[in-house]
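Might you be able to consider the sequence and fold that I enclose below?
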Amino acid sequence: MNQHPSSPIQADAAEQAGFDHGKLQQALDTLPKLFPRMYYFACARHGQVIAEVYAEGVRPGQFYDLRSATKSFISTLVGIAIHRGDMPSLHEPIADYLPQDIVSKHQRDTWWHRITFKHLLTMTSGLLWETGNRLGERWIRSFHNSSSWVKYALRLPVHPERFGQFQYRSIDSHLLSILLTSCTGIRADEYARAHLLSPIGIDHYRWDLSPDGHAAGHVGLWLTGPDMLRFGQLILDGGSIQPAGNEGSDERINVIPSIWITESHRPYSPGIPAFGAYGYQWWLHQLGSEEAACAVGHGGQVIYVVPSRSLTAVFAGNPHVCRWRHPKRWMEEQLLSAATYS
């Protein structure tokens, strides 16, 4: 797939942001060969957008299907809701906040009643599920084809031997969306508009709904490339933004509690070697000697945050491919090697 920069990379701007202009250009030149199904790439350093690349035929303003990168947004909403007092502590059992006519089936299942909000965030609920080595989920299609995702999820038993152990399980993420709505009385996408997206200037997006009317919690969010980068920058900046019209001032508005970002980016399990450790719906791994967090969706939807380098980078690709290349190695060997200082 041919790609072209949306605007030429200025040597002065690149160098002011701490990039070797020549190495950065070389890194960008490798993208078409390494990621032929990539639609969009952008990176920013110290809050300044340095490179933005669109695939040929892709128009600015196009929405990209984030797939499982949606999970990191749901985690962020949970953090906002808890710190606003709209949701209970992470250590509260979830059963008390779910439809009782369905949960009552598990009345005698003490394992089910031990599941907390934190278990869902860390994918350690133990709910019976099958996940392959490459994160393929055997039952995800039957889940999506069911008439009620709520009933499907809540009828799953707990596998005692897996309780407290990490297993990639999209059901956990969707339950967080259901719980957010149950606790706040507001659908997750509407809560996002009020408390996350609109406050940072994201007014145009799409969020798919389940058959029973909940915002999907594990997939479903569609954003433009620049708005993916905007979210990554918010995370990098500790959850705060400058008020509109006050650029250059020290005044900040907190959108996400900084402590939640810190907690979200702690490794609560080893995760999966190919993707890294797992935090609160974020993947965590090393890029060389640098700590990085990333939201990842099938097909190459990735939002990277590298705090030690003051860098964010986003990728959007074809979500319908069977296989895709994770950009971890390119980030480590190409982009970060072009960054000349912190």
The first helix runs from residue 11 to 16. Residues 67-184 form one domain. The radius of gyration is 20 Å.
